[in-house]
Amino acid sequence: MVIVTCFSCKEEQIDKDIIPPSKMVEILSDMELAKATIIFQEADKKIKNEFFFNVIFKNHNTNKEKFEKSLHYYSQKPKEMEQIYNQVITLLSQKQASSVK
């Protein structure tokens, strides 16, 4: 008797070192806001990016390496990446609308 196991039938599990999509949305939104803030300042953009991004990673209990690994993971899955960025745009729009009030 032969037993066949269908591993591909299971839903793909995300590696524990990959940031979940909902958290990626929050981090990417914060990064976009930080970049916008830096544009309006006259200092070295690279240094400010690193500073702001490190603060963002700390606030989201992650680090640059895990973020970059996650970004690479999602970039290999265009549909998921598109959904993440659509949510980033929605979140940024909501933040903008609430700041105008």
Put the structure in a nutshell.
The protein is mostly helical and 101 residues long. It has one domain. The chain is built from four helices and no strands.
Explain what the structure shows:
There is one protein chain. The termini are far apart. By secondary structure, the chain is mostly helical. Helices cover 68% and strands 0% of the residues. The chain is globular and about 40 Å long. It has one domain (15-95). It has helices at 21-39, 45-59, 64-75, 78-100. It contains four helices and no strands.
Strand fraction = under 5%
| Total count of strands | 0
Helix/strand order: HHHH
Average predicted confidence as pLDDT: 84
Assign the structural class, choosing from mainly alpha, mainly beta, alpha/beta, alpha+beta, or little secondary structure: mainly alpha
Instruction: Tell me roughly what share of residues is in helical segments.
Output: 55-70%
Low-pLDDT runs of 5+ residues are: 1-11
**Head-to-tail CA distance between termini:** 70 Å
- Give the number of helices: 4
Oligomer: single chain
Number of individual domains: 1
Radius of gyration: 18 Å
Biggest sheet details:
none
> Can you tell me the overall shape?
globular
